[in-house]
Design goal:
The protein is an alpha+beta fold. It has helices at residues 17-21, 24-29, 71-87, 100-114, 118-122, 174-199, 206-211, 279-284, 323-329, 339-347, 355-359; strands at residues 55-56, 61-63, 90-94, 133-137, 151-156, 215-223, 235-238, 244-249, 255-259, 262-265, 273-277, 294-296, 304-312, 318-319, 337-338. 29% of the residues lie in helices and 19% in strands. The longest helix is centred in the middle third of the chain and has 26 residues, at 174-199. Bound molecules: 2-oxoglutaric acid. It holds the Pfam family 2OG-FeII_Oxy.
């Protein structure tokens, strides 16, 4: 079907639902002279929330080699992680043990996937947020709200990836590369979970035990160049539902995080990962640590690719604060909820931000997040 996008500078250009579902890469590839953003993508962003107004800042940097060093180095690294979790909810890790060539290979195969013909990617098209493998676009195309300038591929991973046989088989090396990458990233998450457990005064294996078999979800995001990047977003402000997300990108800037009510642009640093806390850790820590709102902005010149891997408990786990922390604070600040119900609720909200988390808070006083 022909696109209804016109190159005329009319603010009313708009797309049909079928065209929307084909995604933004398809849209850009088929509208060479697009000067204006189609109306569906224009987000009502308050002036202070405009992507270009973010402050350039730096998040804490943690050298993870300290966790394998002397007792003093280990304790000082745990202390640094604990402070970063309490103050920022975001930090960058260096000396994490994953080779740069493996990171590069993963980004490359993701890029090859998105460059496949649309019909090939559409084999994985799905709007059910719980499906094992999903290719899609925006945040939720079934809802009547402004679209986001992003296509994505998502699937489960895990130390023993049960859905491996469903992962994309084109590019032909995708499964092998993703399996190896996700295994290493899982081990990294477990290592950081251990340090966070200790920093919370819990047994070092506390979080690892709480997640059981665990859930690992990869979200590979593709953000093509956008004609009016200041009017839309690649991904709206949201917190992640899991415990820890481990993120890298292809070197093109785009991640912004909300800290002290201000948007900060997080620069790309080659060979490092950006790690952030999700809602599961806010709940488990009984609010001592906060999950942090973040978003992806787009740009007019270059395609950005980001690869976010989230780690949380197994789907049927009951998510609730750790017992020792409830005792310490004499209250539980969050109502228990089954993890998969939490995900379903969070993924179907229109106003993402931290609205799903606010729903399970026991006191409205807790709604101040950062
Ligand atoms: O692209 C980014 O930097 C952020 C990605 C992200 O937040 C997500 O996939 O949930």
């Amino acid at each position: 079907m022909a696109l209804t996008i016109s190159s005329s500078p009319s603010p009313s250009v708009s797309m049909g639902l079928i065209e929307q579902k084909k995604g933004v890469k398809h849209l850009v590839d088929n509208s060479k002279d697009m000067k204006m953003l189609p109306a569906e993508f224009i987000l009502a962003l308050p002036e202070a929330e405009r992507p270009s107004l973010a402050i350039h800042g730096s998040i804490p940097v943690i050298d993870l080699s300290g966790l394998n060093g002397s007792i003093e180095q280990r304790l000082s690294t745990i202390h640094a992680i604990s402070s970063a979790c309490a103050e920022w909810g975001f930090f960058r890790v260096t000396n994490h043990g994953i080779k740069s060539c493996m990171m590069d290979e993963m980004v490359k195969v993701i890029e090859e996937f998105f460059r496949l013909p649309l019909e090939e990617k559409m084999r994985y098209g799905s709007e059910d947020v719980m499906d094992a493998v999903r290719y899609g676009t925006s945040l939720n195309t079934t809802r009547k709200h402004a679209l986001h300038w992003r296509d994505f591929l998502r699937h489960y991973g895990g130390p023993v990836p049960h859905s491996y046989h469903l992962w994309p088989d084109n590019p032909s090396n995708y499964r092998d590369i993703a399996k190896e990458y996700l295994k290493e990233v899982w081990q990294l998450a477990v290592k950081i979970f251990g340090a966070i457990s200790e920093g919370l005064g819990l047994d070092p294996n506390y979080i690892e035990r709480s997640i059981g078999e665990g859930t690992q979800i990869i979200a590979a995001n593709y953000f093509p160049p956008c004609p009016e990047p200041n009017k839309t977003l690649g991904l709206a402000a949201h917190s992640d539902h899991g415990g820890l997300t481990i993120l890298m990108d292809n070197g093109i800037h785009g991640l912004q995080i909300k800290h002290n009510q201000t948007w900060f642009a997080v620069p790309h640093v080659p060979g490092t990962f950006v790690v952030n806390l999700g809602d599961y850790l806010e709940i488990l820590s009984n609010g001592r640590y906060k999950s942090v709102e973040h978003r992806a902005v787009v740009n007019a010149e270059k395609t950005r690719i980001s690869v976010a891997v989230g780690h949380g408990p197994e789907m049927d786990a009951i998510v609730q604060p750790a017992d020792p922390l409830i005792k310490e604070m004499s209250e539980s600040k969050y109502r228990p909820i089954v993890y998969k119900d939490y995900i379903r609720g969070q993924q179907s909200t229109i106003e993402r931000r931290k609205s799903a988390l606010h729903e399970i808070m026991t006191s409205s006083d807790n709604n101040i997040d950062d």
